[in-house]
Amino acid sequence: MPNTQKYIDAVCEKRGVPRVTKGMPCNVNGRQGKIVGGNSAANFNVKFDDNGDIRNCHPYWRMQIHTPNGGIYYDYEQGIT
Questions:
Q1: What is the tens place of the pLDDT at every residue in 28-77?
Q2: Taking Cα atoms as reference points, which of 73, 38, 72, 78 lies closest to residue 58?
Q3: Measured over all CA atoms, what is the biggest interatomic distance in the chain, rounded to whole angstroms?
Q4: pLDDT tens figures, 18-37
Q5: C-alpha 39: how far from its chain's center?
Q6: 17 in helix, strand or coil?
């Protein structure tokens, strides 16, 4: 699984998402996790806090990415904030 900043950067470029850094907290469909990588489908790899699973998550599908202090950095409904 390509869990590197290089793959995260490629997802951001392909999907038009602001630059995300590895480890940023996120919420996908109500589940808390962290961005840990990117993949060849141009989606983020998210490690979920509740069970440790790493899943392929499309940044346009019910995803919010948060700043380290809890603010919203990106919201799928609002686009780039």
A1: 999 999 999 999 999 999 999 999 999 999 999 999 999 989 899 999 98
A2: 38
A3: 30
A4: 999 999 999 999 999 999 99
A5: 11
A6: coil
Q: Which domains does the chain have, with CATH numbers?
A: 5-80 (2.30.30)
Band (78; pLDDT cuts 50, 70, 90): confident
55, containing H or E segment? strand 54-57
In sequence order, the 6+-apart residues with CB closer than 8 A to the CB of 16 are 80
Cβ-based burial of 30 (10 A; exposed 0-12, middle 13-18, buried ≥19): exposed
CB neighbour list of residue 53: distance below 8 Å, 6 or more residues apart = 47
Give the pair of three-digit tokens for residue 21.
């850094």
